[in-house]
Amino acid sequence: MIARLARRTGILAASVLAASIVVFVFTSVLPGDPAQVALGVNATPELLARTRQEFGIDRPLITQYLDWMGGVLTGDFGRSYVTRDVIGPQLADRLGVTLWLVGAGMLVAVLIAVPLGTLAAARHRKPSGAVISGASQLGIAVPAFLAGILLVQVFAVRLQWLPAGGWTPPAQNPGEFLRGLVLPALSLGLVQGAVLTRYVRSSVLDVLGEDYLRTARSKGLMPGRALWRHGLRNAAVPVVTVLGLQLTTLLVGAVVVERVFVLPGLGSMLLDAVAARDLLTVQGIVLVLVVGVLLVNYLVDVLYAVLDPRLRGPA
């Protein structure tokens, strides 16, 4: 188990290094001059040269990368080319908003998918199972942003139960924070819950046909109890893979949902930075998102070994 964990940690570190190089190179070769964007089209050549020197973009790419990564490792993402504000603290604040949104969305998805997927598998030959399967298929076809708009129309505009957007920090007002998080979390979680329900149903169906579960039932256990005691742990292994993929999808989906609900998260920050051609800020945000995806995959791999003892040996 320790050897497997050490190997996966080494792979994670190498992947982060490779991702940082790719992100830096792609943002560096994009057309456009950050100094020109910061100063405007009427800037003189002398002022442009001084600004490029101030930004450090007149140096070789390898030097720029090493300086940037050296700063990233200490939490220093540099200063915005456009606003000249320090990027690191902004990233930390925006990341907190996005993590609340993604975490709440995943919680909604799991709370929907696990019971409904299990019920759909247990009653797959009955009308109730068919209704759940049909509803999940319909949910998969609905984009998260459209779900958000529909939720706002119903619960914010017509019923006026919840706010249509905005963000209140949890330390400032926990009640308003939760009210403002409900609709964004539902718009992410309902769609991802529909996808996850299909995988839970398929995984539980596979387990229901296993010999050990039939043996447990033949010894007198009720079907539901036999599934709870002997089947769900095995059914969870393939579902964990999908959960990892769903988390990465939620990170991407949060970019649009944050715009719909006017949330100050990483997604909104990224779109604003792209619109302003603030490449250093874009670089930092993309790196944080990529590292987040790699960390999710790493944790999923570790969770495999927890769920399946056969994977605890040398990998």
UniProtKB/TrEMBL annotation:
List keywords of the entry alphabetically.
Cell membrane, Membrane, Transmembrane, Transmembrane helix, Transport
Ranges for domain ABC transmembrane type-1: 95-300
Q: What is the top-level taxon of the source organism?
A: Bacteria
* Membrane topology designation: Multi-pass membrane protein
Question: Is Transmembrane helix included in the keywords of this UniProt record?
Answer: yes
GO cellular component entries: plasma membrane
Quote the PROSITE patterns the UniProt record gives.
ABC_TM1
Q: Which InterPro entries match?
A: BPD_transp_1_N, MetI-like, MetI-like_sf
Q: Membrane-spanning residues where?
A: 12-30, 99-122, 134-157, 177-196, 235-262, 282-307
Name the principal localization, coarsely classed.
membrane
Question: An example of a Gene Ontology BP annotation on this entry?
Answer: transmembrane transport
Protein localization? Cell membrane
First and last residue of the signal peptide: none
Family classification: Belongs to the binding-protein-dependent transport system permease family.
- Mind telling me what this protein is named? ABC transporter permease
